[in-house]
Each structure stands twice: as C-alpha cells, then as structure tokens.
Amino acid sequence: MIVQEKTRRDGTSYTEKNCRFCKSWIEFRIMGLPSITFSNWMPWTNRIKISGIGKPGLYALAHFVKPPSTVDLQTQEIIYVGETCDQSLRQRWGQFHRCAFEGKKGHSGGITYWKLFGGKTIDQLFVAGFPVDGLSDELSPLFIRYVKRKLILEYAVKWGIAPKCNLK
C-alpha cells in the first residue's frame, strides 16, 4: 500500500491510500457483484456444451436419474460444490474427470468421488456451471471462494452435513 500526503484546494492536508483493491472497490461500488446464476443441469458427458466454460467460476455436481428443469443449489442430490480461480472451468472439470473416473490424482473432490462411487455413476452425474466474468483480477477469486463457501454452508444448514464430496 502506498500512502501519499495530499493537499486540498483550501490548503488542508489529507492522506490518500493507493492499494491494489482501490480500483476494485470503485468498480464494486459502481457495478456491484454479479448475480449468482448457474446454468441448467447438463449431463456430465455433455459438460462442454455449457457456455462460458473458458472462464474461471463455480460448479455444482449432482446425481439424478432425470434432472429437474430448474437448478436448486440446495437440493439433497448435490454431491459437490467446486470452484476454480486460476484456470478455466473446462480445465478443472478435466481434472475432476480424470480423478473421479480414472482414479488419478489432482482434484480432491474427484478423488473423493472415486472412493465413494468408484467411477460407475457417470450416467447419473450432472453439472451446473457458473462462469464468473466482469470482475477485476483481485475481486474475482475472492467472490468465487465466497460463493462456494456460502453455498456449502447453506446446504449444510439445510441437510446437517456438507455435500458428500466436499470434505475440505
């Protein structure tokens, strides 16, 4: 943080703090935060059809025989709420897939999925994505991590436990 002594037109002095969040704070005050809007449920095998997956963001995974027409992020069928801040959703989903269905390392939720379901439930796995766009590089990861924790907490308050694959 840089602190600068400045002088007003009337001759009085004040300090101005410049930090990496100042621009973000002004941006937030003007634009606000994005609304939390997830895509519709998509079969895991068709996940690349979700728009915006070249961006970082959040995602929810759930097991359904047939998915509901709307996304309820507190439905008991949710098994994992995930996020990525430094890479795209597409890349993170690739890591999950290798862990969950091939038993490899690189995604803690995917490793837990492999242990719980043995990679045998791909036809019942659905994903809803929330690509995050329009925030500065400083605010975006803070927002993404906040939303993930908020969703997990709300789920746990409703069901008494976090989603099955959210162990951290």
Estimate percent helicity.
25-40%
- Report how far apart the termini are: 32 Å
Rg computed from alpha carbons, rounded to a whole number of angstroms: 20 Å
Instruction: Label the structural class.
Output: alpha+beta
In percent terms, what proportion of residues is strand? 15-25%
Enumerate how many helices there are, as a single number.
Answer: 4
Helix/strand layout:
Blueprint: E1 2-7, E2 13-18, H1 22-31, E3 42-43, E4 57-63, E5 78-84, H2 89-102, H3 108-117, E6 125-131, H4 139-159
Antiparallel strand pairs: 1-2, 3-6, 4-5, 4-6
How would you describe what is shown here?
The protein has two domains: 2-31, no CATH class; 42-159, no CATH class. Helix content is 33%, strand content 21%. The protein is built from four helices and six strands, in the order ββαβββααβα. The chain has helices at 22-31, 89-102, 108-117, 139-159, and strands at residues 2-7, 13-18, 42-43, 57-63, 78-84, 125-131. The chain has a four-stranded antiparallel β-sheet, covered by helices on one side. α2 packs parallel to α3. The longest helix has 21 residues, at 139-159. The mean pLDDT is 88.
